[in-house]
Design brief:
By secondary structure, the protein is mainly alpha-helical. 77% of the residues lie in helices and 0% in strands. The protein has four helices and no strands.
């Protein structure tokens, strides 16, 4: 499989995850190594872009690599923003009523637990008699 084909496959996967995240208020299930793969593939795409533009700054291939890298980066940020928003909402809900989260990756669960703890501590501080 060519580099171009691999890049296109990864972008297609990102777009699929973005569509899934955008279409529901719930966390969608993504592979455990999703963020690690995103980091690796964005790094490769950036390296490819830098290598191409260092040799031929105005080449058509450089323009294609730049556009592809930018689309991957923007799509990744959309996914990240939607998942962070969902984690924050779930943490606030859990702090209020104890509803457990679904489909969080291990690193996202750490974030969730820290948010819940912070929200519970703030609630106790701001309204110390609300639970009694």
């Amino acid at each position: 499989m060519s580099d171009s084909s691999q890049r296109q496959d990864f972008l297609s996967q990102l777009l699929e995850v973005r569509r899934a995240e955008k279409s529901t208020d719930r966390m969608t299930e993504i592979p455990l190594d999703f963020w690690l793969n995103v980091q690796k593939l964005l790094s490769v795409a950036y390296s490819d872009l830098m290598e191409e533009t260092s040799h031929s700054p105005l080449s058509r291939k450089g323009d294609e690599l730049r556009l592809h890298y930018q689309r991957m980066k923007n799509t990744t940020m959309d996914i990240l923003d939607w998942r962070l928003e969902k984690i924050a909402r779930q943490a606030a809900g859990f702090a209020n009523i104890g509803s457990p989260p679904l489909n969080l990756l291990p690193d996202e669960m750490l974030l969730f637990d820290k948010l819940v703890k912070t929200l519970q501590e703030f609630r106790a501080f701001a309204s110390p008699h609300s639970t009694t």
